Amino acid sequence: MSTKTLKILKTEAEYNAALERTIAIFHSEEGTPESDELDVLLLLIKDYEDRHYNIPAPDPIEVIKLKLEEMGLKQKDLEPIIGSKGYVSQVLSGKKELTLKMVKGLHQYLGISADIFLADTK
Predict the structure, then answer these.
(1) What is the spatial distance between Cα 16 and Cα 49, in angstroms, rounded to a whole number?
(2) For 24-61, how does the pLDDT look when each residue is reduced to its tens digit (9 = 90+)?
(3) Which of 18, 30, 82, 96 is the least crowded, having the fewest Cβ atoms under 10 Å away?
């Protein structure tokens, strides 16, 4: 795939060719024609993936658990935000729903994007 043939990707074959070309020129020097081509290819690939590959929203509870692990925290560290030890356990097991107050606290404390909590995961 050369600069002259850059166009909207419509088929899996075009997508795969764009991926191959992207890999081939990935380390091109900034300011070169290959670097410009890479920028356009990345946009075309993203567009194709957005149209053809549905990436499900992450489960908020799983994101919370992952953030706890990444930060070296325990469930008890969430008690000031969520409530008692038992309530934290119920929330993290999916038995209790997150409230708006909890979401705000988790957003601030763990740095989780509010969008994670608003996405429809069902």
Answers:
(1) 11
(2) 999 999 999 999 999 999 999 999 999 999 878 889 99
(3) 30
In 10 A of CB 34, how many CB atoms? 18
pTM: 0.58
Position 46, amino acid: K
Q: Is the dihedral of CA 17, 19, 23, 25 positive or negative?
A: positive
CA atoms of 16 and 89, how far apart (whole Å): 45
Q: Quick one: angle between helices 60-71 and 100-110, nearest 10?
A: 30
Picking from 64, 98, 65, the residue whose alpha carbon sits closest to that of residue 83 is 98
Structure confidence by residue, pLDDT tens digits, 79-115? 999 999 999 999 999 999 999 999 999 999 999 988 8
The CATH number of domain 60-118 is 1.25.40: no
Q: CA 30, 3, 49: angle at the middle one, nearest 5?
A: 85
